[in-house]
Automatic annotation (TrEMBL), chains A, B:
Keyword terms: Hydrolase, Multifunctional enzyme, NADP, One-carbon metabolism, Oxidoreductase
Listed SUPFAM superfamilies: Aminoacid dehydrogenase-like, N-terminal domain (SSF53223), NAD(P)-binding Rossmann-fold domains (SSF51735)
Name the record gives this protein: C-1-tetrahydrofolate synthase, cytoplasmic
Molecular function (Gene Ontology), one example: methenyltetrahydrofolate cyclohydrolase activity
Catalytic activity: (6R)-5,10-methenyltetrahydrofolate + H2O = (6R)-10-formyltetrahydrofolate + H(+); (6S)-5,6,7,8-tetrahydrofolate + formate + ATP = (6R)-10-formyltetrahydrofolate + ADP + phosphate
GO BP annotations listed: tetrahydrofolate interconversion
Domain Tetrahydrofolate dehydrogenase/cyclohydrolase catalytic, first and last residues per copy: 28-145
Pfam families listed in its UniProt record: THF_DHG_CYH, THF_DHG_CYH_C
Listed InterPro entries: Aminoacid_DH-like_N_sf (IPR046346), NAD(P)-bd_dom_sf (IPR036291), THF_DH/CycHdrlase (IPR000672), THF_DH/CycHdrlase_cat_dom (IPR020630), THF_DH/CycHdrlase_CS (IPR020867), THF_DH/CycHdrlase_NAD-bd_dom (IPR020631)
Subunit description: Homodimer.
Length: 341, 341
């Protein structure tokens, strides 16, 4: 049952004015990511039950040994293990040439036990590397980061069921779904046009039937544009740039920023903030994601989602081949429930 | 020297209010397309002079024998001949299977004398065809229609110098350039999100540094959105939908619509109009494209532009290979002027 406070917030989110002045509902990325991971865990168990011994496979390819990359990779491997994904870590030395990196990718592309292949960026090599070429060598069918041109093209032209969606914007959509605010017909504003956040975020909101405005560093009237957003997604990379008084009352505010600012009260001398000034935005938004603990945890969860989705497609294809050959080898029932969502 | 009327229109286009009330400057697609074709003709002559006997090659692949397709193909072949492009027309019968179409495309992909390959849509075959798969079989390096996922992905992520831009939105940008209104920092509104007009138009305006809003059939407040546009591009497919009183004073209005409406004063009983109500829009816009004679003629011109661009890239690559092998076979001078623009 919905509480009165919850109801009031939802009315505000739906654009109703004059409701009791309360703070926004904070949409927790930790909680939402946990729900996604739990759902995937159940699905992977079901896959293993029906397709005896089957496990979705993920491979993380790293070049070099950057500390930050090592941290990110550990967190991906941990999440995969928890869900039941068979995750491998392939580290090439920083002396690897581009040709060696490409050869490794081509070899993993051929490996039927790997359903998702990601190349950890940035590449830490003493040799010249073309990240664009390397990213585009990953088979589009295994590109669970959604960074290849082919996946970007499909997403930008609305073929959402036939591509991999980049993990951060996919996570933002999952957070928006948690608010139960419908996207269709709303005015969404995206700040930023990067390949991994802003540009695919525009595509996702557009193909969810929002009217979408993309703003960026050359937008002269940012506060005015933001003030028209029912849904605002910020991936600008500037600490606390968006102020509360810019916002439309009751807006859904998704903050993709991760910025370090000085803070003498902390032992480290700094703290992490988003691109939105939380304290003031919280007074005006209907829903808001915190930093940290908002979009951040979603990125790894959606990488797992994409990996399981890739395994699901692989099983569907195998099943189709089996049906064509009239020779079922699958264990368990024959109705393919495991492949439905 | 700019006339007083021209100056007044430009002031209006720049957003200055209170100028003398005059009609918009009509931006002619016929005239602009002619300028593009003349420029290409000179460039192709120069290519032939420097690279003895070289001609850009275009191949139009048709399946079946639709009357409208035949008309469009004739107009492409005529434009190509005028410019000096070596254009071929390959027609497969309507009994062709998809496998045969794919084999033809793969064979043309390998032909070094063809720099641009387009598949005339719709495919007129008695057999089932997957246009998406057929379009994506065209080599991205020869996809001068810019319809493959790879080219769409590059465009949507801002890699404009490494892709082919679909011809209609590319033509719209050329028309906008004719107005000398700068795009950067302006608010552009695109109506429509189709693969060949709206979606790539958004990308082009965005990467020209406009703040871009995409509207579509699910946009509830279209007149209000349109009223904020300094630059408006309409690809909605609805006759005279955009009314003059929706427009911001002085806006640049580009109309991609081609609609037939009844007209008893015409022998045919109908006439062609755009998606914009020209008579009223003309009273309020700073610049406007007519229908017919606006965007229409630009599409073929930009197909020629893409074909010449593809040939230019081919020559640049050959030149690089030659330099690597220290074996020049090219006629004329060795400075590669032909490849610069």
């Amino acid at each position: 049952m919905m509480s009165l406070v919850g109801l009031s917030l939802r009315l505000r989110a739906a654009g109703c004015q004059g409701s009791t002045r309360t703070v926004a509902t904070v949409v927790s990325g930790h909680k939402t990511a946990r729900l996604v991971r739990q759902r995937l865990q159940v699905e992977v168990q079901e896959m293993r039950r029906v397709w005896s011994g089957f496990r979705p496979g993920l491979l993380v390819l790293q070049v070099g040994n950057r500390d930050d990359s090592n941290l990110y990779i550990s967190s991906k491997l941990r999440a995969a293990a928890e869900i039941g994904i068979d995750a491998k870590h392939l580290r090439l030395p920083d002396s690897a040439t581009q040709e060696q990196v490409l050869q490794s990718i081509l070899s993993v592309n051929q490996d039927p036990s790997v359903h998702g292949l990601i190349v950890q960026l940035p590449l830490d090599s003493v040799n010249p590397m073309d990240p664009e070429r390397i990213t585009n060598t990953v088979s589009p069918e295994k590109d669970v980061d959604g960074l290849s041109c082919i996946n970007a093209g499909k997403l930008s032209r609305g073929d959402l069921n036939d591509c991999f969606i980049p993990c951060t914007p996919n996570g933002c959509m999952e957070l928006i779904r948690q608010t139960v605010v419908s996207v269709a017909g709303k005015h969404a504003v995206v700040i930023g046009r990067s390949k991994i956040v802003g540009a695919p975020m525009h595509d996702l909101l557009l193909w969810s039937d929002a009217t979408v405005t993309t703003c960026h560093s050359k937008t002269p009237d940012l506060p005015e544009q933001v003030g028209r957003a029912d849904i605002l997604v910020v991936g600008a990379g500037r600490a606390e740039m968006v102020r509360g008084d810019w916002l439309k009352e009751g807006a859904v505010v998704i903050d993709c920023g991760i910025n370090h600012i000085p803070d003498v009260t902390k032992v480290s001398g700094k703290r992490v903030v988003g691109d939105v000034h939380f304290a003031s935005a919280n007074q005006r938004a209907g829903f808001i994601t915190p930093v940290p603990g908002g979009v951040g945890p979603m990125t790894v969860a959606m990488l797992m989602e994409n990996t399981v989705q890739s395994a699901r497609r692989f099983l569907l294809k195998s099943q189709a081949v089996e049906v064509n050959h009239a020779g079922f080898h699958r264990h368990g029932n024959r109705n393919g429930e495991v492949n439905r969502k």
